[in-house]
Amino acid sequence: MASETISNKLDRLGRQGYPQSASVEVTARCNAQCEYCYLKDVSFKELSTQELCAAILKLSDNGVYHLHCTGGEPFLRPDILTVLSFAMENGILACTLFTNGTLLSQEHLDFLTQHKDFFRTVQMSVFSHDPMINDSYFGVKGALETVVKNALFLQENGLRAIIALTICDFNLETMEETRRFLESRGLSVALAYFKTVTGPRLRRVLAQSNTYDFFKRYLLNLRPEEIERDKQRMKESLAKPPQLDAEMCFGRWNAVFMNAQGDLAPCISFRNVNLGNVLEERSLRDILQQAPDYHSICSIRKRDMKKCVQCKFYNFCIICLGNIHTENNSLCGLDDQMCNYAQALFDLTY
C-alpha cells in the first residue's frame, strides 16, 4: 500500500476539523474609506490583546501554522507587534500580512524586515497611478506616495511586497498604466477583479463593477499574453466532458476565518456564516465539527450545484461558495461575477 502523501494527510486532517491556515481579522476599523469594502457596513467590539493572543494560541494548538493577518487595517491596533510576536513564539510558522500600507511606521517596517523569514508576503493596496484619483478613493492624503515608499523599503530589505490593484469601474481603463507605473519601480502587482458583495449598499456601489460589460472591458484591457492564456483555458475546458468529480475550493476545511470579535467561518468570503466563537470553552475542532453549517458547506461538491451542472462553462468556472452564500444567503444560487466573467471571455474567444 502506497504511503500517504503530505498533501493528502493535510487534506484529511482538515476534513476532520484541523485546518492548517487561518485568516484573522484583527480589527474591522480602517483609516481608509474605500467604497467597495464590506467592512464599512459592520461594527465589531474587537478582541483585546489578551483575547486575541488566546485565540491565536487556540488556532495554533489545533494545527494552524500559517496566519493571514488582515483587517480592517491591522496597524490601527497599537498592540499589533505584540500580537504578531506572540504568534511567532507560539507555533505560527508563517504569516501573510494584508495592509493598506499607509500607517506603517519605521518601527513597523523594521519589525517586518527583521522577521522576513516569518512574513511570507506583505500585500498593500493601490487604485491608480494618479495621486488625486488614488488618494481620493482611499480617503487618505498622500496614500499613493506612502504605499509605494513602504513597499519599496520592504522589498529592498528582502521581504516580498505585493501591490493589490483592485479593479473597479472608475479605474478599469487605466489599470495597465497603473501596472506599468508600479512595475517600473520594481513592484509586483496582483489584479483583483472579483469582490465580496454584502448587503444593499455594496450591491449599489458595485453595480457597474460586476456586470458582463465590466468583465468584457476588463478582459480587453489585459495584456495580450494574459487574455490568450485565459482564452486557451476556456477552449480546453469546453473540449472536455463535464468533470463531475471535480472538487471546489479546499479552503473550506483546510482553512478557517475569524472576524474581529472572534466569530468563526469556513473562510473570509462567508460573511453571513457564524460557526461559533473562538473564545468558547470548546476546542476549535469541536466548534467546527459541531456546527451543522460547517458540514453542509464542506460536503458539497461541484456536481451538487444544480444550476451549474448543465452550463457549458461548468468545467471552466471556479465556484466560490463563500461569494454565493454571502450574496444569496444560500448555497443554491449562482456566483453572478463568475457567470458574467465566463460569458464575456467566451464571447471574446469565439
Can you give a write-up of this model?
The structure is a single chain. Helix content is 42%, strand content 11%. It has helices at 6-15, 49-61, 80-89, 106-114, 131-138, 143-156, 175-183, 199-205, 212-220, 224-238, 251-254, 284-289, 292-299, 306-309, 321-328, 336-349, and strands spanning 21-25, 66-70, 94-98, 119-126, 161-166, 188-192, 255-258, 264-265. The model has no long low-confidence stretch (mean pLDDT 93). Helix 2 (49-61) packs parallel to helix 3, helix 9 (212-220) packs across helix 16 (336-349) and helix 10 packs across helix 16.
Descriptive labels:
350 residues; alpha/beta; 16 helices
Short description:
With 350 residues, the protein is α/β, with parallel strands linked by helices. 42% of the residues lie in helices and 11% in strands. The radius of gyration is 21 Å and the shape is globular.
Approximate shape: globular
Sequence stretches where pLDDT stays below 50 over 5 or more residues:
none
> What's the β-strand tally?
8
Largest sheet: 8 strands, mixed
Portion of residues in beta strands equals: 5-15%
**How many whole angstroms does the radius of gyration measure?**
21 Å
Structural class: alpha/beta
Helical residue percent?
40-55%
The run of helices and strands is HEHEHEHEHHEHEHHHHEEHHHHH
Mean pLDDT: 93
Distance between the termini: 47 Å
In DSSP terms (H or I, runs of 4 or more residues), the helix count works out at: 16
- Cross-sheet strand order for the largest sheet: 6-5-4-3-2-1-7-8
